Amino acid sequence: MRTNDTSEDQRLLRRPRFVLAGTNSGVGKTTFTLGLMAALQQRRLRVQGYKAGPDYIDPSYHTAVTGRVSRNLDTWMLSKEAVMEIYLRSSADADVSVIEGVMGFYDGKDPKSNAGSTAELSTVLQAPVVLIVNVGQMARSAAAIVKGFQRLDETVHIAGVLANHVGSYNHFELVKEAIEQECTVPVFGYLPKRTDIQIPDRHLGLIPAIERGELRPLFDSLADAMEQTVDLDGLLAAARSAPDLMDRSPVLFRAPKTEVAGAGGSLHCHHADKPIKIAIAKDTAFNFYYPENLELLEHYGAQLLYFSPLAGELIPDEADGLYLGGGFPEEFAGRLSESQTLLEQVHHHIAEGLPTFAECGGYMFLSQSITDLGGNTYSMVGLVPVKVTMQPRLAALGYREVTALTESILFEAGEKARGHEFHYSAAEPAPFALRRDSPVKSDGTALTADGSYGANPEAAYQVTGRFGHKPDGFVWRNMVAGYTHLHFASNPRMARRFVASCRDYRENGGSVPSTPGNEGNEVSDRHGGTYD
Description:
disordered N terminus; ten-stranded mixed sheet; single chain; 14 helices; 26% strand
């Protein structure tokens, strides 16, 4: 069934959609989201999933359920125009969009505003909101909770409620009657207290379980539960009541140009006849990539070549660049350290100037070593001058705005971008590790193509978080590596410059031109610190 046809005015687009929001974290958003996605899919609807905020894990679940790549919609990292473009672009052939909220409905970047919250996202998308409430051990009081959410910001459209942790059907009837009388919105259904439905560990077991199809029984069980206790027709009616959206000019995926001006010259892009090729590490250890990061690289003329470091696969010979994303390299550090040929190849290629961007897990992979919680230390690539040690508690979490401290393959000096940080490790300064036949000298400098020596790595950017500033990452020759996950859609020039750098590298015969602003700087002992 198609429900996404445009209206007679071709600038208005019909996009059935609803936001699943929660009163707080842990209220059951993911359980309801996966169940509703699975149930709607069983009705032969094409379901497009989205996640408010920067999280990588929940979109992995969405993708596994729907068979369509789920997207992050983040109103703090990205402009409202970019959020709308991502939504309209990815929902074009979907019958209904299910948007999972983050934290509590009004929780975001700032406790004094809706910035970065699910509430703000719902207003940007003009989407009906279905509020999930834990009604355990209450009845009429549930109506007071819903009414409070309605009144805090009357510009949001709470179109209905779902109740979780219901004790019995009679309990549900009490809650439903109270909410519908006092709040004048429907209660679409409920989930009872259950112990037999458990979402697997949100980290280590997720990706392998998805790849092996082990989560299908869970999804089917959730779909059956939704069919039994949720008014799916009512939810679909709410989704279809969403207003049509204006089709705007793109701010991210604009029409191709032959070349675009950049610092110190032009950045050549969109050479379809000779696409540059960027190797993307993609496996259980490296799997956190915002889809738009990859799609913007393609938009600017890159062909993506996927390879698995965990399987011992090497960087493809034809690669003109390398992108090492986040993931869980610490969980596979032993296996990665045994792939000596891979470690030496990565080390050699980057030292020789292969344009490389590594974030979080990729940054850890390029470090000297990773030490796990058991005290076991495993050698890594050895190009980033830090040693990584896993921590028993979360070491860093939160939004980040980065300001480039020097020119690199991603930035001009002073340019800004946004992203987030989430990791359980700490990085301490350490000297370069040397490998056989490495272009790197014992003092940490490297022999360049013209016979001169490049400088030690310097800080890639200054990072601003809720509690202050710090330097993060390193720039060295054509490498940028750091803890911060950057969203290219916050500054599409990052993707454009990366592709252009890869093209320059190829056209220079695989050698690295000198990098402005990268001379004479020593490694700071401040790198690797964390803050919230």
